[in-house]
Amino acid sequence: QFLMANKLDTAMWISRLFTVYCSTLFVLPLLGLHEATSFYQRALLANALTSALRLHQRLPHFQLSRAFLAQALLEDSCHYLLYSLIFVNSYPVTMSIFPVLLFSLLHAATYTRKVLDARSSNNLPFLRKLLEKLNANQQNILKFIACNEIFLMPATVFMLFSGQGSLLQPFIYYRFLTLRYSSRRNPYCRTLFTELRIVVEHLIMKPSCPVFVRRLCLSSISFISRLAPTVA
Fold it and tell me: Are residues 146 and 204 in the same domain?
């Protein structure tokens, strides 16, 4: 009754579980390397479906207008719909699957707790402890996801020069990264950029750091800062 009363949430729960399943079989290719590639694409397609359903839930009345598009781009679900479309047909990159896997795992765990609560307060204690441990480490997991999002930017550039990526991919991914940086619901991307800047500045200001390395890092920090979008 609980599942039928929340059909859209249940559909997203199932698609997230399927995403976790496919992502795991890509990261751990138990069925062979050839099959791992297909699981990579299935995971991203399932994530795209979940993101589309979540976006429909957040903005149920679709309008073909600039204002609606601007509003949609503020939603994290729209960001990860774009993310899935960027990588679904690209060369499989293990780093790109971790945000999809971990977000799906966190959201699936949250809804699984609701399903367990709807059944009984004491059933499956082992699973409940596992979900509680996952929830306790949520902040660290979100920081890890943000770190993946940031370092995928140079990875897309490297893929382009190695012949494994397209010319448009770095530019589209840069747009995705600016959306994540400006996210209203998830500030971890901004936080990680700030923390990385502090760490790098601390290291390069040490007397043992070569002058040319210091200048290169300061120039890089200045360049990246200029590319960062303005956050309201």
Answer: no
